[in-house]
Amino acid sequence: MKLCRRASELAGFQGTVGFVPTMGALHEGHLSLVKKCRETCDTAVVSIFVNPTQFNDPKDLANYPRTEEADLALLDAAGVDFVFAPSVEEVYPTPDTRVFDFGGLDRVMEGEHRPGHFNGVGQVVSRLFEIVKPDRAFFGEKDFQQLAIIRYMVAQLGLPIEIVGCPIVRDADGLARSSRNTLLSPEHRAAAPHIYAVLSDAATSLRGRVSVAEAKRIIAERIDANPLLETEYVEIASASTLQPVSEWGAARGDLRCFVAVHAGDIRLIDNVAI
Questions:
Q1: Domain count of the chain?
Q2: CA 68 to CA 210: how far, in whole Å?
Q3: Overall pTM > 0.85
Q4: Pick from 128, 142, 137, 129: which is nearest to 163 by CA?
Q5: Beta-ladder partners of 17
Q6: Do 213 and 140 sit in the same domain of this protein?
Q7: pLDDT, averaged across the chain
Q8: 201 vs 185: CA distance, rounded Å
Q9: Which of 59, 77, 147, 161 gives a 20 to 30 Å CA spacing to 211?
Q10: Domain check: are 67 and 198 in the same one?
């Protein structure tokens, strides 16, 4: 495995290039993306870069877990060929002032509650694509809205990159794997699986039996029944357009339920098909 700090060091790729962008603090969810990359591509490239432009809260940026030494050991064991772990100056030699139009995908859910977040995602992912020039890039469905936005951006920019979405990886108790999970206190870690328990039950018990508005109210109420959890939002939206629906039959295709929940100081997101 070759560790590269500068873009100029990323050389010698063979065949089909697969790319997994990460912000480090790696877990089994990331490694599932790496495994898919290794299975379908000749060269596997992983980036580790905590991107400052996608954080609208400086405290969140400062507190984001950084575990590079452990990350590199995991990636080496996983058979990664190249790791790109650049400085901010390497990714952004000049300030990135680009503003993206994501066709409204960024104005709901996470975009509504984290202003500017997805523009920062667009900036960093497009820059990394420019540097790595992959044939395929792999993203997890836990960040389902991000996945949709990246697909839109790639099509909009006409980039010859296949975006591969990979299923959510969960702990045995149902909690979606996230780098932020390491920041949970023991009490909040024990409470957090309640989020998925509520969502998975709602996915099979609510559609068509109560109104969409009532379903959202019930989901939030059930999550908040645990005193260590506080729902920020519940949304039921089209899986293809991400636009919220007010009636079960209002959208063609699949629907998904999206939530953001505070477990103490840590903000967790999850989603399920419903």
A1: 2
A2: 47
A3: yes
A4: 137
A5: 43
A6: no
A7: 96
A8: 26
A9: 147
A10: no
Query: What range defines the domain where residue 86 resides?
Result: 2-166
What CATH number does residue 217 fall under? 3.30.1300.10
How confident is the model over 194-232, as pLDDT tens digits?
999 999 999 999 988 999 999 999 999 999 999 999 999
User: Is 174 domain-assigned?
Assistant: no
Q: Which of 27, 30, 188, 194 is catalytic?
A: 30
pLDDT one-digit tens code per residue, 71-91? 999 999 999 999 999 999 999
Same domain, 112 and 244: no
Q: From residue 138, how far is each of 129, 161, 211 by CA, in Å?
A: 12, 10, 36
Positive or negative torsion for Cα 72, 76, 79, 80: positive
SS (H, E, C) the chain: CEEECCHHHCCCCCCCEEEEEECCCCCHHHHHHHHHHHHHCCEEEEEECCCHHHCCCHHHHHHCCCCHHHHHHHHHHCCCCEEECCCHHHHCCCCCCCCCCCCCCCCCCHHHHCCCHHHHHHHHHHHHHHHHCCCEEEEEHHHHHHHHHHHHHHHHHCCCCEEEEECCCECCCCCECCHHHHHCCHHHHHHCHHHHHHHHHHHHHCCCCCCHHHHHHHHHHHHHCCCCEEEEEEEEEECCCCCECCCCCCCCCCEEEEEEEEECCEEEEEEEEC
Domain membership flag for residue 252: yes
Determine, yes or no, domain membership for 173.
Answer: no
Structure tokens at 272: 């399920």
* Tokens (6 digits) for 78: 């996983």
30 belongs to the catalytic site:
yes
